[in-house]
Amino acid sequence: MKVEVHGLTLTYGDAVAVSDLDLTVEEGESLVLLGQSGCGKTSTMRCIAGLETPAAGVISIGGRPVFDSGSGLNRAPNKRNIGMVFQSYAIWPHMTVFENVAFPLKMKGTKGAEMRTAVRETLELVGLDHLADRGASLLSGGQMQRVALARSLAMQPSVLLLDEPLSNLDARLRHRLRMELRELQLRLRVTSMYVTHDQDEALALADRIALMQSGRIVQIGTPPEIYAKPRSASIAEFLGVDNIIPVTREDASCVRLPSAGQKLQVEPYEATGDLRLCIRAEDVLLGPDGMKDTDLGPDGMTVTNALPGKVAGFVFQGSTVVYRIRVGTDLELDAVQLRSSGPLLGLDDAVTVALPPGAIRVLPAEVPVEEPAGVPA
């Protein structure tokens, strides 16, 4: 079902956790709330679930209000038909897998063959039907999280809320369950909201991402939109952009590095004020020492924005190598190169760094507060 949030504000004493937030999750959509700890993403989800009482706002599920500060309406959590999966699993260790999944159905009055069928089908959906009779305390962390997910799905919720459910798992298991969760969401098309601080997780699981800072949505869009077009340098940094450099404006397609005084050609930009040049490490090109603009680089393309530098450090990562290049006295750039692209560089090796204009984004340091929150880039 469709979820609509209007003017949501949540306070704890004088502290504002969520500020005048508007958000719509379409029916069957997977929306991820992404942001750093304390940005208000979990608080927003808890308000929708009915676990927090907002100071103001309206929340509707399937066109039916479940909270309205104006009229005093506040439906209890168990009257909202919401399934919730927590970071801590929250399963009952003294019960079997079957009993854990059956519990919410019993609370709804489902009995007999109907309940057994629903539990078996849901366990099969999450790949745990062979463990139905096993005690929950004997499960691995990944299996426990599947039980928690099955328990929420078994009640056929109008909305599924997931609060960082994979954060307690190791990296390999997180990756596998991330894929399984996405496959389930695409197959079932249940309306879902997922809270995380992990940008890779958000990109993998979302139809749309709502990025939050300081209790408000500062950008919302599809994963490709968010990845390619962050609205500010602070958003870009959170999304894993390695190179964020203060610059000053020369004109609509040129900026200057204040430290070196060098001009750089960039794609036309509209940002004003406190500016940052943002470029991902994988887009930074490395070439031999002494290369200049208009030379041909190792890839056969004309070099643009050539900067002389030296290798200040490197990290070998198997198929790639991450180099840190010192340019001048106070500028360092990260560059990711394929191991197969040439011999490994050593410490203090002289190189040329090239910054392709098409890979550069010139952005304001922060999203201007006066702009409406949640407007796509």
From TrEMBL:
Pfam families: ABC_tran, TOBE_2. The keyword Transport applies. Keywords: ATP-binding, Cell membrane, Ion transport, Iron, Iron transport, Membrane, Nucleotide-binding, Transport. One of its GO terms (molecular function) is ATP binding. InterPro entries: AAA+_ATPase (IPR003593), ABC_SmlMolc_Importer (IPR050093), ABC_transporter-like_ATP-bd (IPR003439), ABC_transporter-like_CS (IPR017871), ABC_transpr_FbpC (IPR015853), Mo/tungstate-bd_C_term_dom (IPR008995), P-loop_NTPase (IPR027417), Transp-assoc_OB_typ2 (IPR013611). The keyword Mitochondrion does not apply. Residues 3-239 form the ABC transporter domain. This is ABC transporter ATP-binding protein.
